[in-house]
C-alpha cells in the first residue's frame, strides 16, 4: 500500500484491504507459531536423547507423561478484529496457502 492509501483507508478498494489484512494477520501468526514449533522440535530432540538413557519402565512412564502433556497443550489464538466475515477468512486461508504454507489456519 502507498502512504496515501494508508492515510486514507476509505479510498482503498475493499478487496485490496482484505488482502493486506489477511497477509498481515498471517505474518503475525507465523511470527508466533514458527518459533514455538522450533522450540518444540528442540524439546523433542532433548527428550529422545534422554529416553535412550532410560530403562524400559522409565521409558514407558516418560512416554505416557509426554502423551498426557501433548493432549493438554494446544495453541489457540482468538482473532478479534480480522477476519470478521467468511470472505475475510477465505482470503486469509488463501493468502496463507500462497505465502506461508507452514502456517495452519483453521477454525
In short:
By secondary structure, the chain is mostly helical. The protein has helices at residues 3-7, 14-52, 56-72, 86-99. It has one domain (3-99).
Show unreliable segments.
none
Radius of gyration based on Cα positions: 20 Å
Number of domains: 1
Fraction of helical residues: over 70%
Largest sheet, in brief, is: none
Number of strands: 0
Strand content: under 5%
Q: What's the overall geometry?
A: elongated
Average pLDDT metric: 80
What can you tell me about this protein's structure?
- With 107 residues, this protein is mainly α.
- It has one domain (3-99).
- 70% of the residues lie in helices and 0% in strands.
- It has helices at residues 3-7, 14-52, 56-72, 86-99.
- α2 (14-52) packs across α4.
- The chain is elongated and about 65 Å long.
- The relative contact order is 0.16.
